[in-house]
């Protein structure tokens, strides 16, 4: 099967911001864009994106999961990058329009239609290293995706990185291109040196997140994850999992977690760890690598609570459980 995110629907919705206002929504071919090589985004990385999914239910309905949370986050990213302000109602319409057009192509579970809104600064002004782009382009790409878990019983190996950081500390909560390029060096080195799947960034011992997913620790009835601050991306999946954990009567502790505490707790039988994100849903972590030593998390296998929380989330997304929190937008 094609790699995640390499197949695209042939059309996308697009709007441009010029002279202080947004254009009407256009539907255009999704295999090209036209803008000046001097565009702000290509030189000064004025870019942000979102990732969300539409799911097909047994009764034929297609539902988008937590669209409003993703739109709000994109508006926030745009603001923090000094891009033109997103018109949230218009972006809502752009997403609904394009998903409606390709409703028939939304895969059945465990597949889904991945939705990728992208916002870039297009002003042709290479003298603007220290000034915002006054024009921009917003588009919504669609990519049908399969099950990230085709691997079955696998768990991830994470390298704990205490010296480097994923991105500049004030940029962690912005879903912006440069942050991912900035994390590629450490991730590639971790793959080569210790065969790690991901790097868990823990600057000065503070457990934050991996390159593109949040980290959660599960100890019995308690779910522990870092409390929201500007240093890391505030995942919609993280928030959904914490909400479902509370619904199941679990204790949710949003607080700082140190590497020392993580390693100590991880080795207790019954402890579980997982990564959360739209693409990965909830991926079990089996091994932590720290200072040349490997620590198995619990029994090293996918944990029962991790699987239960993932199933609870999938059940809402797939229309198999009540949408008690109003997370679905029916197309
Ligand atoms: C997108 C992303 C996440 C996960 O966010 P979701 O809203 O759950 O998809 C976590 N960390 C980073 C760095 C991300 O880019």
CATH class of the largest domain: Alpha Beta
CATH topology heading of the largest domain = D-amino Acid Aminotransferase, Chain A, domain 2
Global outline: globular
Give me the count of strands: 17
Helix segment tally: 7
The span between the termini is 27 Å
CATH architecture of the largest domain: Alpha-Beta Barrel
Average predicted local confidence, pLDDT: 96
Q: What fraction strand?
A: 25-35%
Class from secondary-structure proportions: alpha+beta
Rg, rounded, reads: 20 Å
Helix content: 25-40%
| Biggest sheet overview | 9 strands, antiparallel
- CATH homologous superfamily classification of the largest domain: D-amino Acid Aminotransferase, subunit A, domain 2
Q: Which quaternary structure do these chains form?
A: single chain
Count of all domains:
2
Low-pLDDT segments, ≥5 res = none
Query: SSE string, helix = H, strand = E?
Result: EEEHEEEHHEEEHEEEHEHEEEHE
- Small-molecule components bound: pyridoxal-5'-phosphate
């Amino acid at each position: 099967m094609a790699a995640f995110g390499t197949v695209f629907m042939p059309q996308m919705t697009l709007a441009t911001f010029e002279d202080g206002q947004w254009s009407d929504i256009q539907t255009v071919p999704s295999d090209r864009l036209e803008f000046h090589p001097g565009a702000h985004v290509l030189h000064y990385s004025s870019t942000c994106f979102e990732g969300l999914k539409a799911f097909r239910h047994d009764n034929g309905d297609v539902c988008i999961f937590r669209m409003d949370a993703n739109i709000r986050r994109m508006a926030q990213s745009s603001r923090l990058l000094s891009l033109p302000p997103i018109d949230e109602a218009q972006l809502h319409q752009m997403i609904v329009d394009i998903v409606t057009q390709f409703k028939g192509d939304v895969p059945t579970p465990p597949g889904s239609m991945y939705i990728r809104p992208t916002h870039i600064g297009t002003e042709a002004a290479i003298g603007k290293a220290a000034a915002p782009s006054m024009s921009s382009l917003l588009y919504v790409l669609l990519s049908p995706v399969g099950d990230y878990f085709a691997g079955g019983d696998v768990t991830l190996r994470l390298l704990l990185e205490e010296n480097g950081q994923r991105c500049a500390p004030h940029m962690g909560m912005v879903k912006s291109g440069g942050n991912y390029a900035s994390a590629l060096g450490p991730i590639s080195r971790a793959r080569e040196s210790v065969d790690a799947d991901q790097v868990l960034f823990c600057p000065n011992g503070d457990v934050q997140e991996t390159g593109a997913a949040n980290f959660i620790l599960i100890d019995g009835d308690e779910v522990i994850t870092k409390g929201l601050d500007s240093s890391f991306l505030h995942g919609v999946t993280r928030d959904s999992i914490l909400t479902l954990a509370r619904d199941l009567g679990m204790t949710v502790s949003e607080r700082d977690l140190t590497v020392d505490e993580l390693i100590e707790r991880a080795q207790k039988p019954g402890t579980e760890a997982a990564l959360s994100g739209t693409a990965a849903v909830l991926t079990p972590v089996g091994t932590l690598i720290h200072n040349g030593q490997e620590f198995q998390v619990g029994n090293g296998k996918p944990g029962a609570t991790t699987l239960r929380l993932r199933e609870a989330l999938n059940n809402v997304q797939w229309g198999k459980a009540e949408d008690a929190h109003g997370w679905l937008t029916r197309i």
